[in-house]
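Example 9 (inverse folding). The structure is encoded as follows.
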């Protein structure tokens, strides 16, 4: 063994060194992690910036190979981290090398949204925080200029974004800019700052808003005409690449598509039974849900709903801690928030900073509504908050020093996290928290939505045939228009939500299937562990050990969970 190998860092050290180097390239990540020294800058979103990040990934993979040869590099903890790091970086490089970063336009997850959303997480406790925010506002024009350069290169290489993504983002930009005469989103943000920094904040907000206006005009006048006629779907080759990226596995897509249909039929039967209890004689479960929209329990007022959701999560923590989970004090804190205007329709969660100075937060997009039916809120906040995303991602943060920061932050596999959150919804049903037909029907509607995602996401991107057992257009091939119609017929959510969801699936191919397929992996792991341990199986112990594994792709998740 060479001297270099003996002195090489261990895989977990390589992984954390990668996080440190990545924060230098991507200061937004530093803000998400709560690290000092990155709050004034934004990343280079140009082709050169993308290539710098890819170069870091390639160099890290070389260092990882050396680390695994070092004595101690093959321990269970080191192997788990090394496996995740290699799989994640390889998947990310495949996406980069295919030029996907040169056509990254979408309504939920794109460089543009990354730039704006970081401002919602920045601290604003004192003048120093606001001064840093003002400096970051002035960095927005350069960041968006780099983003535009990447899209221009994509056009040159004939790598267009989907036209539907562009149209939707143009609408979002109009809302952020305040095109109807209202104050821009950045100006509204700056208005909350101290008078002593008023000039700097207003100037930064004006520059940031001006950059949004320039990007909007270019997207509308140049980019949109150039991509007109391009497909909104991605085809099998691109789809497989994105499936690996979001799921950490090379999935059997035909089997997954068939599983989506199996779940559709199972859940539909359960929904019909619950709908009969809610509205006897209802023609469909969604007729019963529409009845609940006007006659069911609801919360009136945006702030009142925020407070109600906070109380729901606090109550869940009190009832679950010590019985089905063992929660550290920092994990017990989670905040309910209202999402900024112009967000996509789906609620979301942001994890705590590494030191927990910024807690985990759930975000509710209001979409202009002020009345919120309870049947939809409860199961969604079990998913986004407690015991869903918050318990998993906050626990990862809590054990980061025992694993690696990489395994518990940037190495997150979407299907692992979304699968846990969907498992959390089911767990609350199993534990009896959904104690009325109203709440159970809302839960089943959410489960149905995740099954529909598997069907339409795979179906429309691969242009699969709708099977003969389908009550909807059997024998035809999926298109985005058919997918939207099918989704709308099988959802209790309003039309603007359905529209936003379909645009999301077109812009994030392969991500939406991870909810149901991830849940399947979590359930399979739990049942295998229960079967192996018999009467000695302890669900609370299993939950905490499972939540302390850190990130895993679906290829590894079932095996690790089964062994607990």
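The amino acid assigned to each position is listed next.
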């Amino acid at each position: 063994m060479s001297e270099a190998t003996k002195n090489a860092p261990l895989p977990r050290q390589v992984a954390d060194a990668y996080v440190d180097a990545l924060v230098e390239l991507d200061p937004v990540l530093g803000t998400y992690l709560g690290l000092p020294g990155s709050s004034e800058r934004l990343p280079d979103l140009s082709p050169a910036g993308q290539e710098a990040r890819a170069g870091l990934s390639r160099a890290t993979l070389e260092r990882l190979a050396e680390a695994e040869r070092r004595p101690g590099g093959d321990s269970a903890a080191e192997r788990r981290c090394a496996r995740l790091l290699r799989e994640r970086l390889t998947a990310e490089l495949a996406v980069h090398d295919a030029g996907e970063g040169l056509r990254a336009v979408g309504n939920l997850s794109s460089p543009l949204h990354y730039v704006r959303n970081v401002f919602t997480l920045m601290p604003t406790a004192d003048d120093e925080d606001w001064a840093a925010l003002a400096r970051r506002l002035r960095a927005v024009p350069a960041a968006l200029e780099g983003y535009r350069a990447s899209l221009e290169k994509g056009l040159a290489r004939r790598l267009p974004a989907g036209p539907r993504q562009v149209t939707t983002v143009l609408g979002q930009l109009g809302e952020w800019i305040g095109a109807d005469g209202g104050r821009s989103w950045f100006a509204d943000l700056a208005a909350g700052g101290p008078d002593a920094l008023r000039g700097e904040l207003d100037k930064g907000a004006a520059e940031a808003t001006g950059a949004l206006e320039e990007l909007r005009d270019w997207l509308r006048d140049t980019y949109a005409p150039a991509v007109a006629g391009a497909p909104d779907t991605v085809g099998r080759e691109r789809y497989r690449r994105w499936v690996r990226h979001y799921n950490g596995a090379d999935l059997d897509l035909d089997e997954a598509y068939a599983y989506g249909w199996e779940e559709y039929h199972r859940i539909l039967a359960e929904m019909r039974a619950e709908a009969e209890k809610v509205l006897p004689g209802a023609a469909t479960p969604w007729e019963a849900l529409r009845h609940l929209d006007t006659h069911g329990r609801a919360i009136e007022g945006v702030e009142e709903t925020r407070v109600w959701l906070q109380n729901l999560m606090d109550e869940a923590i009190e009832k679950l801690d010590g019985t089905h989970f063992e929660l550290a004090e920092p994990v017990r804190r989670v905040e309910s928030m209202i999402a900024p205007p112009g967000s996509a329709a789906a609620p979301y969660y942001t994890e705590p900073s590494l030191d927990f100075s910024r807690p985990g937060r759930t975000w509710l997009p209001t979409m202009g509504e002020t009345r919120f039916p309870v049947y939809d809120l409860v199961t969604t906040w079990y998913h986004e908050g407690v015991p869903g995303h918050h318990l998993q991602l906050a626990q990862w943060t809590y054990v980061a020093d025992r694993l690696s920061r990489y395994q518990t932050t940037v190495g997150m596999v979407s299907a692992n996290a979304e699968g846990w959150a969907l498992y959390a919804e089911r767990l609350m049903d199993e534990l009896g928290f959904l104690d009325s037909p109203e709440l159970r029907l809302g839960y089943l509607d959410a489960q149905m939505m995740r099954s529909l995602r598997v069907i339409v996401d795979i179906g429309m991107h691969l242009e699969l045939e709708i099977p003969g057992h389908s009550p909807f257009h059997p024998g035809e091939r999926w298109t985005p228009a058919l997918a939207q119609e099918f989704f709308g017929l099988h959802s209790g959510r309003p039309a603007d939500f359905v529209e936003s969801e379909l645009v999301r699936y077109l812009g994030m191919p392969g991500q939406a299937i991870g909810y149901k397929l991830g849940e399947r992996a979590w359930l399979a792991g739990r049942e295998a562990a229960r079967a192996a341990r018999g009467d000695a199986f302890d669900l609370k112990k299993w939950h905490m050990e499972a939540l302390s594994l850190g990130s895993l792709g679906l290829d590894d998740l079932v095996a690790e969970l089964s062994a607990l």
